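Input.
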Amino acid sequence: MSFDFHGLAVAHDSALADDPLRPFFAAFASSPRAAEVVVDVARGEVARPSGRPLYFLGAVQVFVEGAGYALFDGVARADVTRGGERVAARVPASDHAWLGGLLHAALLLALRLRGWFELHAAGLVSGERAALIIGDAGVGKTTALFSCVERGARFLSDDRVLLRDIDGVLAYPREAHLSDQTVAALPSLAGVPLVGPAMAGKRRGDVRARWPERFTTSSPRPGALLFPRLSRGVTRTAPLARADALGGLIEASALVAVADVPFAPENLALLARLADMVPAWTLELGGDALREPGLVAAAVAEVMG
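Output.
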C-alpha cells in the first residue's frame, strides 16, 4: 500500500503484523501514485554487513555496502539504495523488541538521500504560530510539548521533525516516548496505552490516538526555537545567541557532518538560515515544571507571541 508522505508516494510492504511502521504510516492518507520509495519488511536470514562502518545512530550501526548502505542493530538488518528509492529490512524469526529503531533509522536515511533533513526536535503549533523544541533525549522536549498540547496547542511529533526548506516543518510522527514522571504530571496522558519494554526510563505510546484533533502533519515556518534544559530553579525562558542556537541545531541534526552521506552543505545552510531568521530561547525547566506544567505552557506561549 502506498501513502502520501508529505507529497512523496511511499509504499510499505510488510509481512510483520506488529511492524512498528504500520501505525506510523497510518497518520497519512493513501496515495494512488506509483511509489517513489518502497519499504519492504520481511522475515529472513540476517547477515552482518561486511562493508565500511560509517556511523552509529543509537544501537544501529550504518555501513557503506555495495551501491548503498546497510544498517544493523545486532539482530535485524536493513539495506538502503544509494538514492533512497528502496529500503529492504530483514528480521529473524525471533521477537525483536527494538525493531522500530532500525526501521526508522533506515527510513530517515532514505529520506536524507532525497534531501529531507531530520531534526531531533518536537514540533508545536499554536494558532498560526509554530515552534520547535530542540534537544537530545532527556532534556524535557516531550514534557514541554504535551504541557502545551494539554492546553490546546497542536503537535507534529515529540522527538523528530523533517525540514526541506526554511518555510515549513514536516511531522515525523513515530510513537511518543513517555516517562512515568511526564504521565503523572499530565493527567490527560494517563489513558495512553504504553507498550514495549522501557528504554532509558520511557515507554512507547500512540499520543495521536489520544488527541487526533490536535495532531497536524505540517506547520509554517517556526516563530521560535526553544532549547530546553533541566534546572534546579524555576521554569523560565532566556534569549539565546545566534551562534549558540546554530550549535544546538547542528547537535540535533544526526547526519549533518557524516562523510559519504549527501546534502551536508545544504543541510548546514538550512540550519544557518533557521538560526539567522528565527529567534531562539533557552527553556529552563525547573523543579516546578512537573508540579505545575501550566507554567511550561505559559513560558512557551510567551515567546511564541
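The chain has a mean pLDDT of 94.
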